[in-house]
């Protein structure tokens, strides 16, 4: 067994840190696959952090009578009890010859002693953080396609992201499916459109923007989407209130203030003021007043004053759009 | 001299209570005691002194001299340490059935000092429907020495089944002169300030006291009353609403933060934080986290209520303002509550019709209703300020 270990074999101890489940699973899976490639008979022990007992790691990592290596995977390693943490850290400093240990840690403050200790002991560290920016998700789609031996255009990737939403597992599955179903090397927008359409995740702010800008049809459609995907009606009302409130403030701001001064006077960031200015087109003070009154009435309805929150919201959006004074 | 002297302008109610206290004493000495009952409902507008009246009555029941005001019993009631007086003051948004059941159990005990066991339930209108139903049996046939005193703004706030089981004591809005006199004689307030505070508070005794003694309260009232004249455009309405809600939040935070911290520290100590010794660890023992969470929920409910109460006080000040506008418009010979804002009152009275003024008062009342229905305060207040917009002349 020892002879079979080559330079590119997995590290004896690997620490996967981060809260993005899919990527963490993949990192763990890669180590297991590498071990299997090196030694097809390797035994895999998959453990959950909270259930590991003191001494268990020592037992699993001690040489077997029949030879052959072992892979010990500890998932949710942040839940390990104190005694086991000490055991794992001291093991990491002197790992056994033919055992590979993989620890998946969710990051964060819980079980920090373990993460730090293992890192200091010289473990191989893989970091998998949640992707928060759209650009990162687009990059994820591209690498995903590359893994499948395909490529994808920027427009197509953006359309796919819009349609599938932000969950990486779903994105990966969608990429896989597309790569499987589409002939040709490059996946273009038409191919994406064949399987995926529309927008998966609509926030209250999207609805509010559409309503304030007077796009009634869009606003109602997005409202249905938002409600169907589980956005709370209360959040939709407050998003609309926020939008209208900015209109009122920016519309009534003193004319002689500009840029930074105006921003600090209104307590709003400059980019938001610019956007609100554009939205103000078509609004008058009477209309804003009427719309804000409707918001308060709708909030009462949504909080139990009316029979159907969805109706109250639709009615509110219609009132808001109708309150725009022409043009 | 006596416990009933603190009740300003409530001669009729005091008369009833005195007679009841006398009958109660008669009952104790074996007589018939015809004027005494076991369940009372004190009603009256905010600030008329329902709780004070109920407390005075309790003292009169405990006191061997029927409320002398200086014996041990009266003193213990005044400082809230009398063992037979159970005061219930709902601090959250409502008073639930669980608490009520425990209360009923405590109320069933015999009096410790041998006279009466009194349960004083302030803000009884905050009891939920379930809680009120749980109370029914207890207030209909309490043990022979238990007396229930419930307080609510109006008899209609209580369920009819509760109301029909209680004897109602109606307190009236005390006249301005009586309140001012009380401020001068009791609190040593200069006559002009007393006069101003009594008028501005419109018969609410405790509000008058606060206005007379607390400069900050006067400042807040000024800020609220300057709102109507500042509502020139939509932007001003939104800003005024934002400011009003924010001030209320800050005030609620000032009241609750210090209290919250000491309560949490105490609870943590109860659950063994910082304790040392064999078998103890430094953290909370089992169940501590749950109890802490429950306490936090209760504190959050209390903060919401404080915030709502602060906004409500402001709204009531606004109502007095528009009521004065209406009085000026009709030329009614009544005393103006906000005489200090004469210029604003007259300018608004000229530029609007009485119908519009009434509509504005309605908007304020609608806002109060919405707040009670849990509408986001900022949205409710915004809608109100928009309805109050100063007419462009």
Automatic annotation (TrEMBL), chain A:
Keyword Transferase: yes
DNA polymerase III delta subunit-like C-terminal domain: residues covered: 205-317
Pfam families the UniProt entry points to: DNA_pol3_delta_C
KW DNA-binding (keyword) present: yes
Keywords assigned by UniProt, alphabetized: DNA replication, DNA-binding, DNA-directed DNA polymerase, Nucleotidyltransferase, Transferase
Catalytic activity: DNA(n) + a 2'-deoxyribonucleoside 5'-triphosphate = DNA(n+1) + diphosphate
Annotated EC: 2.7.7.7
A single GO molecular function term of this UniProt record: DNA binding
NCBIfam families found in the cross-reference section: holA (TIGR01128)
Family: Belongs to the DNA polymerase HolA subunit family.
UniProt protein name: DNA-directed DNA polymerase
Species: Streptosporangium pseudovulgare
Organism ancestry: Bacteria, Bacillati, Actinomycetota, Actinomycetes, Streptosporangiales
UniProtKB/TrEMBL annotation, chain B:
Top-rank lineage group of the source organism: Bacteria
EC number: 2.7.7.7
Keywords on record: DNA replication, DNA-directed DNA polymerase, Nucleotidyltransferase, Transferase
DNA polymerase III delta subunit C-terminal domain span: 318-386
Reaction equations catalysed: DNA(n) + a 2'-deoxyribonucleoside 5'-triphosphate = DNA(n+1) + diphosphate
Pfam families in the record: DNA_pol3_delta2 (PF13177), DNApol3-delta_C (PF09115)
Enzyme class: transferase
NCBIfam families recorded: holB (TIGR00678), PRK07940.1 (NF005926)
Name of protein: DNA polymerase III subunit delta'
Species in which this protein is naturally found: Streptosporangium pseudovulgare
């Amino acid at each position: 067994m020892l002879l079979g270990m080559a330079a590119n074999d997995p590290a004896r101890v690997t620490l996967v840190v981060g809260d993005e489940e899919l990527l963490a699973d993949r990192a763990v899976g890669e180590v297991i696959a590498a071990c299997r490639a090196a030694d097809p008979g390797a035994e895999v022990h998959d453990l959950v952090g909270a259930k590991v007992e003191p001494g268990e790691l020592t037992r699993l990592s001690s040489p077997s009578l029949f030879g052959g290596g072992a892979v010990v995977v500890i998932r949710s390693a942040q839940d390990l009890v104190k005694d086991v943490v000490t055991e794992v850290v001291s093991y990491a400093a002197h790992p056994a010859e033919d055992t590979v240990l993989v620890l998946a840690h969710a990051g964060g403050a819980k079980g920090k002693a373990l993460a730090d200790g293992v890192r200091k002991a010289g473990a191989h560290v893989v970091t998998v953080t949640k992707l928060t920016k759209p650009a990162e998700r687009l990059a994820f789609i591209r690498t995903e396609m590359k893994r499948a031996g395909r490529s994808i255009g920027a427009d197509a990737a953006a359309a796919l992201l819009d349609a599938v939403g932000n969950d990486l597992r779903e994105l990966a599955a969608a990429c896989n499916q597309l790569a499987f179903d589409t002939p040709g090397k490059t996946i273009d927008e038409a191919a994406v459109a064949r399987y995926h359409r529309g927008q998966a995740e609509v926030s209250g702010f999207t609805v509010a923007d559409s309503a304030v800008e007077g796009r009634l049809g869009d606003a109602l459609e997005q409202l249905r989407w938002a409600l169907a995907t589980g956005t709370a009606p209360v959040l939709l009302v407050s998003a609309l209130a926020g939008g209208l409130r900015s209109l009122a403030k920016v519309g009534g701001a003193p004319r002689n203030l500009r840029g930074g001064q105006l921003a600090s006077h209104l307590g709003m960031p400059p980019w938001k003021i610019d956007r609100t200015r554009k939205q103000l087109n078509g609004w008058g003070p009477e209309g804003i007043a009427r719309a804000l009154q409707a918001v308060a009435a709708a909030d009462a309805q949504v909080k139990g004053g009316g029979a159907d929150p969805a109706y109250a919201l639709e009615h509110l959006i219609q009132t808001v759009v109708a309150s725009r004074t022409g043009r | 001299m006596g416990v009933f002297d603190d009740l300003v302008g409530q001669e009729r109610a005091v008369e009833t209570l005195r007679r009841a206290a006398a009958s109660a004493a008669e009952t104790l000495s074996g007589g018939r005691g015809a004027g005494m009952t076991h369940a009372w409902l004190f009603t009256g507008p905010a600030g008329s002194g329902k709780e004070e009246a109920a407390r005075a009555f309790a003292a009169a029941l405990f006191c061997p001299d029927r409320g002398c005001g200086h014996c041990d019993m009266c003193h213990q009631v005044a400082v809230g340490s009398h063992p037979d007086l159970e005061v219930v003051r709902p601090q959250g948004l409502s008073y639930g059935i669980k608490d009520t059941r425990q209360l009923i159990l405590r109320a069933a005990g015999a009096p410790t000092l041998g006279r009466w066991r009194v349960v004083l339930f302030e803000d009884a209108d905050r009891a939920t429907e379930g809680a009120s139903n749980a109370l029914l049996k207890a207030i209909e046939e309490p043990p022979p020495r238990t007396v229930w005193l419930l307080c609510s703004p109006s008899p209609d706030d209580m369920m009819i089944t509760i109301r029909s089981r209680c004897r109602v004591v109606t307190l009236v809005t005390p006249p301005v002169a009586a309140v001012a006199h009380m401020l001068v004689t009791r609190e040593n307030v200069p006559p002009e300030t007393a006069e101003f505070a009594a008028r501005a508070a419109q018969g609410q005794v405790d509000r008058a006291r606060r206005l007379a003694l607390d400069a900050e309260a006067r400042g807040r009232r000024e800020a609220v009353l300057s709102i109507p004249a500042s509502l020139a455009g939509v932007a001003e309405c939104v800003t005024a609403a934002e400011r009003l809600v924010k001030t209320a939040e800050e005030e609620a935070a000032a009241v609750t933060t210090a209290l919250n911290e000491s309560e949490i520290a105490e609870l943590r100590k109860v659950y063994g934080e910082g304790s040392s010794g064999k078998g103890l660890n430094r953290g909370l023992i089992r169940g501590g986290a749950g109890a802490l969470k429950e306490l936090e929920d209760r504190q959050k409910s209390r903060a919401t209520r404080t915030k709502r109460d602060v906004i409500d006080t402001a709204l009531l000040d606004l109502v007095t303002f528009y009521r004065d506008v209406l009085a000026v418009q009709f030329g009614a010979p009544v005393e103006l509550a906000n005489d200090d804002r004469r210029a604003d009152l007259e300018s608004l009275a000229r530029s609007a019709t009485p119908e519009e003024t009434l509509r504005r008062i309605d908007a304020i009342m609608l806002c109060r209703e919405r707040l009670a229905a849990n509408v986001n305060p900022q949205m409710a207040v915004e809608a109100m300020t928009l309805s109050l917009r100063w007419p462009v002349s």
